[in-house]
Design brief:
Length: 441
């Protein structure tokens, strides 16, 4: 708003100055062309001829001779003595100043104008005699009429300049209004045209950003509804089936077996709900990280030890020799966020690994590089970019045993980006996938 006000203010100032200067020049030129009879140079010649003519006549005949000559001019000519000059001033309403009287006495030509009535007079003293020749009144176009015309031209010009300034803004606002109307009707693909006035560009970009975010939220909501309706039904159906079997089963061993199955299904439901809640939180607002310094080696060992206890069929190998040798075991991160990053990466590795899972941390160019790799079938090159999108899973041959709704890696990417880092995928040395997480130390 401040920039818009300054631009309009500066435009109006420049317009006022420019139009005023232009009209003044135009008015001056026009006045010189239409009112050439009022030019002093012309009347000096007229006074010279009249003075020479009057000098040829006695003083008592000069008035009569001037009256006869005035019929040949388009305006009256009179001869006044110095005493009648005051009466002349009172009659015309145009007073003569002291410097004008002195200039007149020295033989100069003075001019008097009545802009309201469009009248002008020219006065010059006779040479060698007392008396003042007066030419006029000479009628010209009244200034009031000219002022109205030029004032009208000024405001018309001002309107043109303001219109030229306002039109791009108005056009941009109409485009934005149309886009908002279409968006409100359900066309979530529509975006406002960014080829607008610079004063509207930020507003248009904010609208487009908002529209894109709303579109993502609606898409996420649809995908979430779809995922919930499919993925949550499976463990619920298994729990219901196990309950029916338990009611009718007398064998204690089979009952314990189905109770274990129900417990696994409940854990699966709990994991799915947790992922949904975390992802929904990202859609509502950006989590505020609590960055502190932690011992990264101890932090990783604590997480991996839990997996060693719960997943004894896998070999978990942690390599932090680079950190220990460099005496840089401490790192800054959000404990809860980084815990979700490593936990999701390890769970992903457990799903697809055959036997071995490796975790390593190194320092490269003042950044920490965490690698989690497995010896599974790996991830095809063409799917490595899309796998971090929410609700995206690999083909059924890889995902049948894994379950999940495709939110784990999407959550990982969001937390890594909040740490000003990035995550990439490459092939592990022994086959399988290797996830590389990089963030500032």
């Amino acid at each position: 708003m401040k920039n818009l006000f300054l631009r309009l203010y500066i435009l109006l100032i420049l317009t006022f100055v420019g139009l005023g200067w232009s009209i003044e020049i135009f008015y001056s030129n026009l006045s010189n062309e239409e009112q050439i009879t009022s030019d002093l140079a012309l009347h000096k010649g007229t006074f010279m001829l009249l003075n020479a003519e009057l000098m040829r006549h006695p003083e008592n005949e000069q008035h009569t001779h001037l009256e006869a000559l005035s019929t040949s001019f388009g305006y009256p000519i009179a001869l006044l003595n110095e005493d009648k000059i005051r009466q002349f001033s009172n009659h015309t309403g145009l007073a003569l100043g002291t410097h004008q009287i002195n200039y007149l006495s020295s033989g100069g030509v003075i001019s008097l104008f009545n802009d309201i009535k469009g009248e002008s007079w020219f006065l010059k003293k006779l040479s060698d005699r007392n008396g003042v020749m007066v030419l006029g009144p000479i009628y010209t176009e009244p200034v009031v009429q000219s002022d109205i015309i030029y004032t009208g031209l000024f405001f018309i010009g001002l309107a043109v300049f303001v219109f030229l300034w306002v039109w791009p803004i108005s056009k941009g606002l109409m485009s934005l209004t149309n886009a908002a109307t279409e968006f409100g009707k359900g066309n979530f693909e529509v975006r406002a045209n960014t080829h607008v006035s610079s004063s509207l560009l930020e507003l248009v970009e904010r609208f487009n950003s908002m529209a894109a975010r709303i579109q993502r939220l609606i898409k996420s909501h649809r995908e979430l509804s779809h995922a919930v309706s499919h993925e949550l039904r499976t463990p619920i159906a298994r729990i219901r089936f196990a309950m029916e079997i338990i009611r009718e089963e007398d064998n204690a061993e089979l009952k314990h077996k189905y109770l274990d199955s129900m417990d696994e299904s409940i854990e699966e439901l709990d994991s799915l709900v947790d992922e949904l809640l975390v992802y929904a939180k990202f859609d509502r607002e950006e989590p505020q990280l609590k960055i502190k310094e932690y011992n990264l080696v101890i932090f990783l060992n604590d997480i991996i030890e839990k997996y060693r206890l719960n997943e004894p069929r896998f070999q978990f190998h942690l390599n932090v020799e680079n950190l220990v040798s460099a005496n840089k075991v401490n790192a800054s991160f959000d404990r809860e966020g980084m815990n979700k990053v490593i936990d999701n990466l390890l769970r992903n590795a457990v799903r697809y690994a055959k036997k071995r899972i490796s975790i390593s941390v190194t320092i490269e160019q003042e950044k920490l590089v965490l690698k989690v790799s497995d010896d599974g079938v790996g991830i095809p090159q063409e799917k490595r970019d899309s796998i971090f999108e929410p609700f995206v899973r690999l083909d059924e041959s890889r995902d049948k045993k894994s379950g999940g709704i495709g939110l784990g890696l999407a959550i990982v990417k969001r937390f890594v980006e909040l740490h000003q880092g990035q995550i990439t995928i490459e092939s592990a040395k022994g086959g399988g996938a290797c996830f590389n997480v990089t963030w500032p130390q």
